[in-house]
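Fold it.
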Amino acid sequence: MFRNQYDNDASTWSPNGRIFQVEYAAEAVKQGTAVVGLRSKDHAVLVAVKRSPNELASYMKKIIRIDDHMGIAVAGLTSDARVLSNYLRTEAMRSKMVYGRPLPVGRAVNSIGDKAQTNTQEYGRRPYGVGLLVIGHDDTGPHLYEFSPSGIVSEYYGYSIGARSQSARTNLERNFDSFENLTLNELIMQGLRALRDTIQQGKQLDTMNTSIGFVGKDTKMTILDGESTLEYLNMLDEGDDMNIE
């Protein structure tokens, strides 16, 4: 991509029917480390690779809890993700205060889709440079949604965004028929196997760079970081050893 006369703002169409600012925002999502989401009939799971800006810095947060029944994973500009997560938390709190019930997951995702789409219509504003995978559980069961900077939201059985995410999507496409009846642990392991396909050669998943989140019918939104992920990473290695034998 390159600068041209049609990319000065997000409200100008090119003669080819494209909005370049939105496409640039989508490229920002591809620069973020990969996140993978998948769901079964009872649970929804997120797994993510965290990145450290340098050796002296801590790893950046990739999975954010919104409410007891909902969480998000981010890829792209973290500051934009913080704005959207704060908005979702406010909406979730308002739903409990006004209606006395948790915010339906589909309504939550559509609300940030509408918020993002407004930025593509008004002069002087820019699209959010972040993509989200949203998991949650409500009266209709577990859900996995993808939010893109264009304001489009889609529901999936399994999906991945971020750098080298196509490798993870290929893995998910090969196996998604089995997702429906997987247990929580099996679902997490399937997600980690897909996430591992996005890792650069010479690197591997470890307790420092791996983050896991899950939610279900009788399970509140839970995020595992650091040593809490060791059990699943060991299971991943043991599965590899069995395959070698």
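DSSP finds six helices and ten strands in the chain.
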